Amino acid sequence: MKPLFLSTTTTTRPFSSSSLTVPFSRVVDTSSASSWSSAIADLSRSGHHSEALLAFLSLRRLSSQPSPTPSSLLPALSSAASLPSLPFGRQLHLLSLRLGYSPADPFISSSLINLYSKTQHPADAHAAFLESPVRNAVLYTALVSGLVRNANPLKALAVFKQLISNLGTSEIDPAAIVSAISACARVSGANVVGGVHGLLVKLGMEAETVVGNTLVDAYAKSGEVGNGRKVFDEMPERDEVSWNSMVAVYAQGGKPVEAVEVYMEMVGRESRRSTAVALSAVMHACAKGGAVQVGRCVHNQVIRMALEDNVYVGTSVVDMYCKCGRVDAAWKAFGRMKERNIKTWSAMVAGYGMHGRGREALDVFKQMIEAGVRPNYITFISVLDACSHSGLLEDGRRWFKAMKQDYDIDPGVEHYGCMVDLLGRAGCLDESYGLIKEMRLEPDSMIWGSLLAACRVHKNIELGEISARQALKLDPKNCGFYVSLSNIYADFGRWKDVERMRVLIKTRGIMKPPGYSLVELKGKSHMFMVGDRRHPQHEEIYGYLDKLRVRMQELGYVPDTGSVLHDVEQEEKETILRVHSEKLAVAFAIMSTVPGSPILVIKNLRVCGDCHTAIKMIAKLEGREIVVRDSHRFHHFKDGVCSCGDYW
DNA sequence: GTAGGGTTAG
């Protein structure tokens, strides 16, 4: 009966970036079952899941104990679920079946539901639920959250309703309500979150911090940021997660100013600790809103707190600079990082890619492979996207083939989308069409849209009609498809068809989502919509644009009214073009900054053809580098040309 | 057996 000294020193946890010292060492009496199981439970509870599993295995091997009991099996199973590790979990499942603990023991059953949900085996999770002779609230809750995790929120809500009808509302506790709220957050429809909110108020759970946290996120996910903020403001107590969620909500909504405000309130008035999570979230907000000045301040804070080496924070810094048009600053930050994971590398590849610097993107990608990091599904999207933005036809073909052959990754719609775009751009329309036809997956509307756009550039009316028909079948409300087809007809002088498209757009009530452009000035974001006159300096902006237009016309500028949808006269179309949001933003930025300094404009939609031509000229006339981020990529306008090579 | 199920971020 030799006691075993079980000590775990420095070890690296799988799926975690930092190596850490496990604060665990104790004497385990291997002859005592309770000492054995409490050691495993301690490890599992403190989050040292691989160590818990190792302890379970090694102690089983060393021990004279006949067979494990639920008190050691259970924490091991819960660690297997947390990692998550399907092989370990299955082994433990089989063991508990053999020993008769499963399916009889509801504690084991709930852990099994959790395990199979986390390893994306929802059918097995459901089976574990059905096999259990006991159906208590914990089992229901495990199933509800598991279904949410596996992208089935509707079924999750149905299971939650079963809970209520079978067990009554008295069985509902905060954990149950939290999983129900997170299901609601992912179901579209009016007031879904509000329904469960009402229920939990009736049950007197609104003061629970976790419940409030989940509600904040749920309202935000359903587009009701205001309601989320209200819940946040009324919470009696807020923890770290509450604050981080509120920052994240604004980040996801692309509101860097509000995100920073909440962050400042957290570290200022509330004098809470700033954390890596909070800083990544704020950085994410800056990336989304193109707020490079604020982003730089946040970056300074990251440096001050010595958090640059944190791989998550470092990656969000890289991503922020890329998305704010400063890909060289991103590269510098990338170079300083001591540790890089797959997301870090992919962010850098994507960063170069969206700036049209495909060669550099591929170089980084090759360095990544040399560094021994295995590319995944996402990485290949970045790689192929980079090829398509730079027209690297041969590289694109090569890596598209290699992803399946060398890395055994089946191409998804995103990869096909990049290839269709790349081939189409290069004028290989038949090959592009052929690729769509040989896809095993259902092509989405974006893929057909890419081919449609290529058909316009390379003037192929037959294939254009085919593509448009398919695209519109999948997404009949997307006005871009109507416009592209109409443009093709216009290029061929088929004015009757152009008119037919115009009528179609009108009768089907197709609306273009409102376009807006953002410019950051002294840390403040200025937003412009088409024909916006809300800006205090709008008189000056319009006056300046008028003067610019005269100079542009001297250079041969002719308005391209093709992308104006409205049912109006030619003259009026030109007026609309004149006040497109990106033109207003560019004019405002030039007026407000020192001559010669670069300009960044963030646009929510794709930049229109006329604006693209106009901004090229403005860049030349004003001797400025104008960088525009549209919904698709970056455009660097300089000396009258654009980095996209006029294909976007 | 404070045994199992619950929220945020990258």
From TrEMBL:
InterPro entries recorded: DYW_dom, E_motif, PPR_At4g14850-like_plant, PPR_rpt, TPR-like_helical_dom_sf
One Gene Ontology term of the molecular function aspect: RNA binding
GO biological process: chloroplast RNA processing; RNA modification
This protein's UniProt keywords: Repeat
Span of domain DYW: 556-648
Listed PROSITE patterns: PPR
The keyword Transferase is annotated on this UniProt entry: no
Gene3D superfamilies: Tetratricopeptide repeat domain (1.25.40.10)
Mapped PPR repeat ranges: 208-238, 239-273, 310-340, 341-375
Membrane-spanning parts: none
PANTHER family linked to this entry: PENTATRICOPEPTIDE REPEAT-CONTAINING PROTEIN, REPEAT-CONTAINING PROTEIN, PUTATIVE-RELATED
Identification of the protein by name: Pentatricopeptide repeat-containing protein, mitochondrial
Species for this entry: Iris pallida
